[in-house]
Amino acid sequence: MSETQAADAAALDTFPKLLANNARRRPERPAAREKDLGIWQTWTWSQVAEEVRALACGLAALGLKRGDKIAIVGDNRPRLYWTMTAAQVLGAVPVPLYQDSVAEEMAFVVDHAEVRFAMVEDQEQVDKLLAIKADNPRIEQIVYDDDRGLRHYDQDFLHSFEDIQAKGRAYDRANAGFYEAEVARGKGEDIAIILYTSGTTGQPKGVVLSFANLVQTARNTIEFDGLTEDEDVLAYLPMAWVGDHLFSYGQSYVAGFCVSCPESSDTVLSDLRELGPTYFFAVPRIFESVLTTVMIRMEDAGWIKRRMFHYFMAVAKRCGIRILDGRPVSIGDRLLYGLGRLLIYGPLLNTLGFSRIRVAYTAGEAIGPDIFDFYRSLGVNLKQLYGSTEASVSITAQPDGEVLPDTVGRPSPGVEIKITEAGEVMFRSPGVFQEYYRNPEETANIKTEDGWVHTGDAGFIGDNGHLKIIDRAKDVGKLNDGTLFAPKYIENKLKFFPEIKEAVAFGHGRDFCAVFLNIDLEAVGNWAERHHIAYASYQELAGHPQVQQIIKGQVEKVNRDLAGDPNLAGSQIRRFLILHKELDPDDGELTRTRKVRRGFVSEKYQTLIEALYSGAERAHVETEMTFKDGRKGSITADLEIVAAETFPGAEPLRRAS
After folding, report:
1. How far apart are CA 442 and CA 207, in angstroms?
2. Domain extent listing, the chain
3. Cα dihedral value 449, 455, 456, 459, nearest 10
4. In the CATH scheme, what is the code of domain 477-643?
């Protein structure tokens, strides 16, 4: 970077300043898109700057001040992203909330963050805030984007987005120079946002990130992957999650590329196909879901298409990844792969919307190696990223040409990594968070005085310089015979099968590994329909004897794979059961980012765990659950416990006690 470029970068140290720069440098380039009523609407950088200016002035007229907190709740919408920038112009702090949170969950964050203002998407989110407002009197003003259903709401603290912008334009005219002065006041060390963790092990924590954290991380990651203003990105992951904040907001403002918002959460896959992004990010669950859809379609296809698909997928498995990485491949395999691209891979990628992807990332939790290799064998440059909210996302990433399924890559630019004597990964970087909001004790527990951060993950750095994450440090354990027990690794192997949606493995301090499973209702339901098997509910289908035999076969395939790993041969799955209900965030079993709350599940289903280890053939359970309309109810079931075959393998490596 030249001295001039470095000086320019130093001056552009906040997102409002970056927005102004984009409006000057690339005024007519697309900055944002949104699909509404089936039509893509587009805003250029100059138009976004005008929208943000009117909104910022309107919020100032409404009373938003420097240091105030403003909650942002809803699906990915340009207006909600613009609210972040508008608040930052004024020195206020955005606090995005998960849009599918129930009112009680929102109440904790709203109270803890001391929220005074809120910008929400629609009536659903307005109703949640109204439900908690009496117990959260700090909430003074609520602004909404979509006015459908709100016509007869007459509270004086409710305002439409359009009304606030109209007030803002009048305020701007009456206060010449106000907006420019507020933008100039912002500094890199100022708080840019507070993002709350998903609360896997307890109440969410508010991670305070500065502009310097996010802008520098965005610059480093853009340079790492060679991103430009020409990228197309689909923003569909929760705005409250740090990954979306960096990829759909931070990198967009720094690189100047366009971010598109789908029409709804139900249309993401079809909108993805229409858009054809060049740069794509998804958590493993999304890639698992897409793979499930592919496999279901193949089962519904004619026998000729099925034979072709499986034949060419075998070719892709043999040489596709080598071709993607530029490694030597025989002429015969290269020709077969080219034919497969013409007949299978190309049409499949086009159907999925993956044809234009230059770079794709997955993170959030480990992805199953088989799932990872499936996409790369098709030619998708899918890579793994390891990060956290406390790191402004990026800790490690995989460079092109060094993509391995069992590592998460090298330290990202500007990041230092070390492994403690206990095997825990620690990092230090420009993205290290400032503090946990109103939680100095927990801040001191995780962040050292010299800026090193405990990740809570167990891992090691290989001879190739790549970091390999074994599991959450607290989750990695041993069976009673000393065999290494890594539950997430086992769970990810199970979830490669389209019929298995979720898995929770147990084994630490036990004689063997056992698991809870959720079936994928779409995949197994499709199978049931083809085989003329009637069912009335998830519970009935999950308990069907033929379904259990299908799942048993898949568990035993995983056991065969584990048998070949000297570290894990002893942790093959001996017994399992299929749960009578899907694990659900509304029941506290998953976080809002769909991670298993392992401790909560273990406590809630303790009787089932004991049944797995008691030798019983069946287990009775009664469970409270939350229905889609918010009502509570209970469900009872007698679950069959299935014994799985295990296989001889390499002598397990023992860990010292």
Report:
1. 11
2. 12-211, 282-355+357-472, 477-643
3. -120
4. 3.30.300.30
